[in-house]
Amino acid sequence: MNHYGPRLSGLIDALRRLPGVGPKSAQRMAFHLLDRDRDGAADLAQALADALTGITHCPECRMFCEDGHCAYCSDARRAAGQICVVETPADLLAIESGTGYRGCYFVLMGHLSPLDGVGPDELGLGQLETTLAGGGVQELIIAINPSVEGEATAYYLAGMGRKHGAKVTRIAHGVPMGGELEYVNASTLSHALSGRTPA
Amino acid sequence: MNHYGPRLSGLIDALRRLPGVGPKSAQRMAFHLLDRDRDGAADLAQALADALTGITHCPECRMFCEDGHCAYCSDARRAAGQICVVETPADLLAIESGTGYRGCYFVLMGHLSPLDGVGPDELGLGQLETTLAGGGVQELIIAINPSVEGEATAYYLAGMGRKHGAKVTRIAHGVPMGGELEYVNASTLSHALSGRTPA
Q: Is the N end or the C end of chain A the one with fewer CB atoms within 10 Å?
């Protein structure tokens, strides 16, 4: 017998739509918000509403942005001749914070997956092609995850880049720093060997 | 360099206030909601707002309720002569769904903790005392977690129950079903031994 009222059930169901939140966690979150942090619940409701109305995708690189253009595209100090293509905003942030790369980006927001109805249009590749066709892009850096769909997406992007005369590169796949050869999987080791560079 | 705009930062900070959600999870949730489940985000904002306005505490047992009285207190088939005191709504639901208990409840929403400013008033114990003084309560069942603060709370409750002539009982603490004596801690084992019952 479930004695939750409709509002409490509604809140628990809504919290379960968050990634990684199951029924027990959702119940715990709902009780915590109602019992100990009603201000936090009000803040969260307001933040969600603000985000939904105020956050859009940058028309140039498809990253999240809040005022027309994202901070990366509107930064004049960035090398406009380099475009690094990533799958998600989180990948972009990982490259931005972990490396010295200061060129431009293009965020696909996914990868090609015809079975799920995700084709070139859903990834905004027409937009990228327009940028490439405009000239001025010397290098297209493909930083896509090496999954099956990712490889197909990378292949498609490489063809598009070459068609417009850009140099197409892929980030290196190999043994991670701190990793041990003995424990690295065979596929990674093959990549590392075929991608060897002069020492 | 953090290139999040104020709305996205605000959303991530608000999500971090949920229990068990750290910075990485909050970022993942925010990106998921913005990128793949904007309907879910709108539903969550609405559910939070509805819950904040519509969910209050039952004036009798302090459980969450949505229309004046909770489903437990307003159920005439329940034994009004038994009151089971628990710390949280989750504890109430565990007892309700896991046992055959069909008496009334009283939810403390915490335990006595003078250092955190939680005294008898914060736990609504005045309200419980009024109920006890009204007579008609034969048994006060204490189902408080056996922590240090929980023990103090149970001691306080037992005194209050006895003062008003109610029979005071505590749920048994002992070896859990399926547990093995060898691996049960000493304190639990002592409780199990001193709480032995005729076979």
A: C
